[in-house]
Design a protein that fits this description.
The structure holds 2 protein chains of 2 kinds. By secondary structure, chain A is an all-beta fold. In chain A, strands 2, 4, 5, 6, 9, 10 and 11 form a 7-stranded mixed beta sheet that branches. In chain A, strand 4 and strand 5 form a beta hairpin. The radius of gyration of chain A is 14 Å and the shape is globular. Chain B is mainly beta. Chain B is built from no helices and 12 strands. In chain B, strands 2, 5, 6, 10, 11 and 12 form a 6-stranded mixed beta sheet that branches. A 4-stranded antiparallel beta sheet of chain B has the order 3-9-8-7, with no helix packed on it. The chains are: A mainly beta, B mainly beta.
């Protein structure tokens, strides 16, 4: 249980194009999903918190118009990197928090496998 | 404010010997603590979590961690390392439930190397 998927697992795009990354909770409902960015040999950096049916909350220094987040359902959040540039190349990871407190997993984030973005 | 410090950026052990990855936390409330493992180019996998129940927490793959409030520590151990344990390990504390943010605060990570 508690499986989170991401699609695509890797993507290469040209500078100036937009890229959409999907994050899905496969066997549970997630009121909240989180988007992280990870640089090589570093820890995860939280970019934004995505709540189902409301606007995402962005961390300081993260451009909301650059990184568009949509959380349209309890099992799907998307991150769109708009007008991507080489400096946006990174490993993007999502996580989902289980909605059901009865499951005993309410305080736990479950992570997707990550998406490697390379912008040429 | 909550914080997490992983005391070693890199730990090297021989296969079959014990593993100790150290973590200290700072929190003004009773925290939820986690250990996650990340293999290269993969997402994070939950090893174990502490949420104010038993102080000795058993996780997957033979790992366990002990919550010591007096020492503000949550060290991760395993009696016998396996080659497949080589990975990056993150000690994590969650923001208080009262904040309702669900945010996690990550340590900087410890790279575990296992030598044959």
């Amino acid at each position: 249980g508690a499986v989170v998927s991401q699609h695509p697992s890797w993507v290469i795009c040209k500078s100036g194009t937009s890229v959409k990354i999907e994050c899905r909770s496969l066997d549970f409902q997630a009121t909240t999903m989180f988007w992280y960015r990870q640089f090589p040999k570093q820890s995860l950096m939280l970019m934004a918190t995505s709540n189902e049916g409301s606007k995402a909350t962005y961390e300081q220094g993260v451009e909301k118009d650059k990184f568009l987040i949509n959380h349209a359902s309890l099992t799907l959040s998307t991150l769109t990197v708009t007008s991507a540039h080489p400096e946006d190349s990174s490993f993007y990871i999502c996580s989902a928090r289980d909605r059901s407190r009865a499951s005993g997993r309410a305080d736990t984030q479950y992570f997707g496998p990550g998406t490697r973005l390379t912008v040429l | 404010a909550q914080s997490v410090t992983q005391l070693d950026s890199h730990v090297s052990v021989s296969e079959g010997t014990p593993v100790l990855l150290r973590c200290n936390y700072s929190s003004s409330y009773s925290p939820s603590l986690f250990w996650y493992v990340q293999h290269p180019n993969k997402g994070l996998q939950l090893l174990l979590k502490y949420t104010s129940a038993a102080t000795l927490v058993k996780g997957i793959n033979g790992f366990e961690a002990e919550f010591k409030k007096s020492e503000t520590s949550f060290h991760l151990t395993k009696p016998s390392a396996h080659m497949s344990d080589a990975a990056e390990y993150f000690c994590v504390v969650s923001e208080p439930r009262s904040s309702n943010t669900g945010k996690l605060i990550f340590g900087q990570g410890t790279t575990l190397q296992v030598k044959p």
